[in-house]
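INFO batch 0412 | record 1 of 1 | parsing
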Amino acid sequence: MKSRISILGAGESGVGSAILAQKQGFDVWVSDVGLIAQKYKSELEANEIPYEENGHQKTKILDAIKIIKSPGIPDNAPIVQAANSLGIPVLSEIEFAANYTHAILIGITGTNGKTTTTLLTHSILKNAGLSVGLAGNVGRSFAKQVATEDYDFYVLELSSFQLDGMYNVALDYAVLLNITPDHLDRYDSYQDYINSKFRINKNQKKHQKFIYCADDEEIIKQLQNHTTSADLMPFTYDNGPLEQGAWVENNQIKIQLNHPKIKFNMSLDQLTISGRHNTYNSMAASIIANSLLIRKESIRESLLDFKNVEHRLEYVAKVKGISFINDSKATNVNAAWYALESVESPIIWIAGGVDKGNDYESLSPLIKKKVRIIVCLGKNNLNLHKAFRKDVDMMINASSAEEAVNIAYGLGEKGETVLLSPACASFDLFENYEDRGNQFKRAVRNL
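INFO prediction complete | emitting tokens
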């Protein structure tokens, strides 16, 4: 009986899956349609795993009992459709690797905030002395860690693309932070994207935990169609107290859990990551930590010490009384909304890039209230101008991060904040959002 597993994509996810599949005794074949990075090629060769690059040998790939697909490969790729037509299961690294670990699995998704919440949860558990791995959309490959480590817990950041390839995994803790339109170039409809996000709780059983934002209208609406046997643990900013979950009251995070019986509170002023969105992220992570009976003082210390991910509301510098914040990771409207909402001072907003069919209407009240000038950083800024030209004093186009920073600095006044929070993808002018953020920071330091 054939026991080949074919791996599509030879990045972090694909190579990790190959190493685990080999360890489990499968005949492994790795195929990448492009060039394989040297570090991954070296890893495959060190493990004597056969591979190809710059194209797919269709016959060899399809001679398999299952195919593990890297999340960046769309479901409509010809090789994936060929596998589907032959009835060959196509799954994600997460689905595959979960079969070979008995660890407690904590999965975190949402249109925005999942990286911060994942890193924060991992930090709390690690600081408490637990044996915990960090994987999924952040950190090292989950499959490789399952193959080479022996962690008791895994905290997994899960994108919709990773969730699409998960069929039978039952997460012990499933976190859904928010849902707003994103990646609509990859999904046929917004509802398809929503359904993808709700795969996070699909197989959960009684006594597993589903943690979600009760202030997110889309989540509440969709819960009726995506029921679960798991314990429901909502969190809310405005609508507490709750019988079970987390809420904000008198400028404090309050948590109450029934099984186990837990009460926890912490002042918002003690959180090192500010803004309403980070309060949500902190509540989600704190529910998990309290449910795992981590000492309250240990949780508080971790929340006090946590440093946020680079390019997410990252304070860069203050130059002649003007503050500069790098939020280049905000590649959609909802992320930009949270950034604008969190800044207290008057704003010069640097926005723009590749518009993914954005609806800017939700930003208009914040723009009118907080933003004086918009610097449009992108090749085509027409949609931004149409959306906001009546809301601000001035809109100016820039074609580089340096030009945008210099314009903002030249027009800025003492006490204002220059906020890079693009609401758009970066690849018209930059390699990725990291490149955009790094160029922004370099330009600020050059001032």
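INFO post-check: The CA atoms of residues 252 and 267 lie 4 Å apart.
INFO record closed
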